[in-house]
Amino acid sequence: MTASDWNKLTRQLKGKPAVLDKFLRHNKPKIRTSGIAKRKCERCGRFGAHLRQYNLNLCRQCFREIAEEIGFHKYS
Fold first, then answer.
1. Dihedral of alpha carbons 42, 45, 31, 9, sign
2. Under a CB-based contact definition with an 8 Å cutoff, are residues 72 and 54 in contact?
3. Structural domains in the chain?
4. Cβ-contact 50, 41 below 8 angstroms
5. Residue among 56, 50, 49 at smallest CA distance from 71
6. Is this prediction's pTM over 0.85?
């Protein structure tokens, strides 16, 4: 189950508090403290190839798409 599926199910169960409590107790994704899944791209949600320099928190693909808009220049 992906994190987005988990969020969808919690929204659907808002009207049933007893079922929601049981669901959260058994199916809540664990909080990551280390590893590749700890950090996600803020733009698309990918886990790998992460740029944290200058507090960008972007994957390399998103960085290439928006680098010039942010103010970075490409030198050949």
1. positive
2. no
3. 3-70 (4.10.830.10)
4. yes
5. 56
6. no
Residue linked to tokens 């079922």: 19
3-34 residue pLDDT tens: 567 788 888 899 999 999 998 888 887 888 88
The SS3 call for residue 33 is: coil
Max distance between CA atoms of the chain, in angstroms, equals 60
Local structure of residue 42 (DSSP, 8 states): T
- Looking at the DSSP bridge assignments, the partners of residue 51 are 58
| E strand or H helix that includes residue 69 | helix 60-70
Helix then strand then coil, in percent of the chain rounded to 5, is 50, 5, 45
